[in-house]
UniProtKB/TrEMBL annotation:
InterPro entries: Aminotrans_IV, Aminotrans_IV_CS, Aminotransferase-like, B_amino_transII, BCAT-like_C, BCAT-like_N, BCAT_family. GO terms for biological process: L-leucine biosynthetic process; L-valine biosynthetic process. Its cofactor is pyridoxal 5'-phosphate. It comes from Capronia coronata CBS 617.96. Keywords: Amino-acid biosynthesis, Aminotransferase, Branched-chain amino acid biosynthesis, Pyridoxal phosphate, Transferase. This is Branched-chain-amino-acid aminotransferase.
Amino acid sequence: MAPVAITPISPPSPTLDDTSKLTKAGTQTILSETVSNSSPAVADLDASKLIFTPNLNPKSVPAPNSPEVWSQNYTTDHMLTARWTEQSGWEAPEIRPYGPLSIMPTASVLHYATECFEGLKAYRGADGKARLFRPDRNARRFLQSATRISLPGFPPEEFLKLLKKFVGTEAPKWIPEPGQFIYIRPTMIATAPALGVQKPREALLYIMMVLFPPLDEPSPAAAVPKSLPAPSTQTPTQETKRPAAGMRLLASSHDMIRAWPGGFGNAKVGANYGPSLVAQGEARSRGYDQILWLFGDECFVTEAGGSNFFVLWKTPEGRLELVTAPLGDGVILEGVTRASVLDLVRRTRPDIDVVERKFTMQELLKAADEGRLLEAFGAGTAFFIAPCSDIHFRGVDLVLPLGKGVLADFAMGIKKTLKDIMYGNEQHEWGVVVEEEKL
């Protein structure tokens, strides 16, 4: 059969020499249609249609730090669900008793990883109010992740209304005391019962809440500063030394890559996490907490486990610089905590240059050798702000000042400031109060 010439539709597609632009163009088109509601033929997600079905067999609330909490499997009484079909769009969402989902063995999610999720927390503040932290960012990222794998779009503001309603229903019982929090996991899966690599025709959005232990607790000997202090450059003394309690990182090997340019590392999809578990298991077996993911022969530093990674150092010219890997090429997840760290430091520390750029392990090693490496830390929802004590990089042990007994004052100052917002000690637009309902 002779080749057939294909006339491009208007506007023309991006050139074929940049396949990442094809994906970005398609994703952006779908996102713009979702936001502008330019495809009203099927029903949008609508929070006003929410149905509530109470759980008639409620659970008891376990004690803090109990085995149930540490199992990270103890959920609240309810979950929120919303079903979508290609023919009809979104059905009425429902808050209903937590329980098993019913899907067929041929469901797309089980074969083609058509699944995405989010992670955030609800906090009980010192003033007794329940709060979410910048949930609008989670809503937008959830939509972007869904769009990346052809799951259905939704108005982010409607998702936020549902999220707040769900939190308002569960928070009075499950985070009753100031200082408590609970983890929230919104998820979307493709459920159409048919094999074949194709765009999902049915989907289920659900939100559940799980009790989590405080994974970010520092060593009891660690002092928590009241603000963002100048980073310490002192030599460890008897007063500053303490057992190293920071995160220990094992740099990934040359044949293990988490994400790549033009890929989907910037989407929070399950396909990013399963393949990383082999490396994670190796790290744990060798006494490390997380993998420090590197990319390319240059050994560009990308992320630490499931967290964004930051380094505070002095430049060769003597300037303080906070550096983290950049967005834009599909490798780095746009973390909510990451954005908050960047925003906070830019607003409050004019003496620090905030830089988003590619940097390598060789730069870290050189800075350490020259005494310019001050701190490094991971930033994410689960572990929050986690200072790093040491990194093993292909036979070389890089010990940071924290591993030598110098407190990570800068990272801990950021942590305290953000925590004050989350728990209402500081009134801030990032801390979103949720209206609660007594059942």
